[in-house]
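Q: My labmate handed me this sequence with no annotations at all. I'd like to see what the chain might look like in three dimensions before we decide whether it's worth expressing. Could you predict it?
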Amino acid sequence: MNNEKYMQRCISLAERAFGNTYPNPMVGCVIVHDNQIIGEGFHTRAGEAHAEVNAIQSVENKELLRESTLFVNLEPCSHFGKTPPCCDSIIAHKIPRVVVGCIDIFGKVAGRGIEKLRANGVDVSVGILEKECRELNKRFFTFHEKKRPYIILKWAQTADGYIDKPAGQKTSTKGVAITDEICKKEVHTWRTQEQAILVGTNTALYDNPELTVRLAQGRNPLRLVIDLHNRLPETLNVKNGKVPTIIYTLNPQKSNVNLEYVRINGEIPAFAGMTRLLDSPNELWDEIFADLYNRNIQSVIIEGGAKILNDCIEKNLWDEMRIFTVSEKFGAGVEAPKILQKPVKRMRIGNAELAVKLNN
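A: Here is what I predict for the chain of 360 residues:
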């Protein structure tokens, strides 16, 4: 039996729910009988049936399950959450063999699902396409292993390495648009896939972004703004109350509907197992990421500006970079972050080349 082939199918199924399963991981499942797929399913969103249950339900002749192999990219759960344990369904239908891509590190699972299956006579194999299975749920694994969200840095730059023109060459304080509408649509699609989006005071003040999904279909991310000294006026888009928003500040104001002020002063409680994220203490990022961890936020896109992007790079607080580069040159202006690490992926999108870098 081609275990890799069927595990790859699990991954492909799981990807269909990208951005919709938080805080749960993406999971796909196929059931094979005599080298033929007789059932398959995936987890569509938190609170609904898991992939294994959907796959089992899709099998027309349930008697074949007693002679079949179930493939799943993540260890089946063994605990009661919003849904019953998947292990119980596998055992109840007497499925004799299960092939697992990788172990679920969530504390209530963490090998217990595999143990329970084996204790009930199920032949369990683990580690098929393990690297690919972990990559699929890298947000989930980063969140539980590092106790912080998966961090994506995103910016657009010119061919000569600038993200904005000099102030004297602009008619307003707003940043100059570098990429075209095709790139913007791609960015809005990314926003539907992540749980939060973060900017600093200057970006919110001068660019007045909405930080929402307008050019793609999907959910809006949680808006995060660092405004330590309350410089932002109430008229800005980030304070319009249309989308849940958190303002991190030294002196919080009264929170309103969809607008919450969170004090940055060391009073955010540490969580169990928390370790320093930095080589040297940095209360700002420690508190922000602790707050996001406590809110179960597993991923965040940081869209700038330059000061925040450079700070994250200098402190090694990033997991992925997405950099748009256009052929235009400014000659001078606000310099883009510099990093020599080679990209793992390059592609053409609209008027720009997109480079993706990973912090391995």
